[in-house]
Predict the structure.
Amino acid sequence: MDVFDKLRILTDAAKYDVSCTSSGVNRRAQAGGIGSSAACGICHSFSADGRCISLLKILMTNVCVYDCKYCVNRRSNDVPRTSFTPCELADLTMNFYRRNYIEGLFLSSGVIRNPDYTCELMIRVLEILRNDYKFFGYIHVKAIPGADSRLVHQLGILGDRMSVNIELPSQKSLKLLAPDKSKHSILTPMGYIRDCIRQNSKDTVRYRHASGFAPAGQSTQMIIGATPDTDFHILNLAEGLYRKYKLKRVFFSAYIPVSENSLLPKVNTRPPLLREHRLYQADWLLRHYGFKAGEILDERHQSFDPYIDPKCNWALNHREYFPVEINRAPYEKLLRVPGIGVKSAKRIVAARKDFLLSFESLKKLGVVLKRAQYFILCSGKIMDGLTVEKDSVIRALMSKNSLNRYYKDFTSGVKYEQLSFL
Amino acid sequence: MIEKSSLIYEYDGSFEGIMCCVFESYYKREIPMDIISSDRFQTTFFPVKEIETDLKKSTRVIKSIPEKIGSSALELLKYAFLTCMPHKELNMLMFLRKGFHYGPPIMYMFKDEHVDKMLKAVRHLKNESHLLKGFIRFSILGGILVSQIGPKNYVLPLIAGHFCRRYAGEHFLIHDKTHNMALVYRPRQYAVVPMCNFKMAEPDSREKHFRKLWELFYTTVEIKDRRNFKYRRSNMPKHYWKYMTEFQKGSYFKDNE
């Protein structure tokens, strides 16, 4: 099998991994080395599905001893199997990197023979890159659950970011679809990596030459829509992971049916992309906007609204919080206004030191007035000519796509839960 | 405020040249209708005044900016000079006139037409240079990394540091087709030089081999059930594709040897 076949098979098998970020660490090469990392992350291309391509996302091998029902690489699936040798993979990475095709390597793997053996192969690739080629670019490496902690530690020293996939949002789903994995086997390495990172941050203070352990932190991902877990449950899980395991990111992946199984959605079911989108919106609210999971969804509202994004939805249900006075409200309060993001909130705070802001200058400053107008005051006044009518508010708070969907569903008689403010 | 005259200033195309136009504008108490670089100059019906670049005058203006408005204003002007904003020179002049009048708060006067245009143009410049850090594609020809780009803004000074650090041990060249300039680097030394008539050499079989591999990776990594061309276009506007390996025609990859 030549390198083209290997690349095709092992890319095809790796593409369902979501994370392709190259962010979180700033570094330049030492003398004689090649490569650097930028903390903001750099996208090198975008594939036809619109997802960013930043890293060479690839598997070491698609041979796997496990039989997880949602996975293309499961043992019982009849697909061609192959492996890269560590040398081949390192060489490919370097040649792509020199041509500026990629920002680095994202190495994952099926479990060949046993977790330890797989880990050792991956360590070998990273060692060739870091030591032989003196590669200082970005490396994201998957920790293989069940591998010896000494090996996981070695991976962390060589890589920039580590991740352990949580795979499915609950222990019950995991038992059903991934009989070889358990919550315990996944959370153990995650906790171990967290402890190593914490220890390392102390060491780097104490010793100047302490080598970094996963300096770009750790992330995880889970599959959405393969199991009946609710949005509320998933969001709470994500929040818990951020808090307990200090993760940098939690990724969600809309389930794309890859096999016919009575436990899973039928093949040809459309992936739940809207739901994934809403989860990411809520995830942003958790990480950058100071929201708590319990504020976005609760026991009585376990799913996201299909038409209105979580932030607008929250605002509509908490009208006692508004209107917010732009020229005086603290930063945290500005952030909660629909149509004001992190950047525009910061600009507002900086700009209002010098003079009072008007609606016109808010627009120039990047605030989406279409949504924000219903929730703000400038120097005690609402916007000129603003009328709060049911129809116009709906139209303003929905995205164009949502609005089209809303009218289509409305005329075709599909019944969704009534929007709370109608 | 002083009324606009029907004069047109002509300057030599340098940053110092614009600063001398600012000096002239204050000295003569007049605001030109436009300021045009001499290399892009076309005959007009309006009277033209040639502004000579005098480093003494420009230094006086440049020195006063951090004192009267703030160092961030000078930085903004330096960036604005690299942008493709229409009438950038006149905008810079108007920005400075207002800056000297209002002082530091000018940086936050988003409502003002000239301030708004300046900030947007600089954002466009920075955004484009960030994108190009990823979208640039090198070909390895005779051991040298060679690349061509067609950016809207003059981004070479902004991306130079990034590539010099990343490929510190390599020799490389990035040609900017729009501005006919090139960034040339050899270990620990770089220069931005004028360069017209640049043509990429024919790739050897090794180069073609990796181009093909990259195209294969690009097409394979897509998830067909999630295809979304519009999303891709908004992330990566089509005018960049012309210079990117993965979007070239078949002959670009064919290995004839």
The helical segments of chain B are 15-27, 55-68, 71-82, 88-102, 113-135, 156-166, 205-220, 229-235. Chain B has a mean pLDDT of 92.
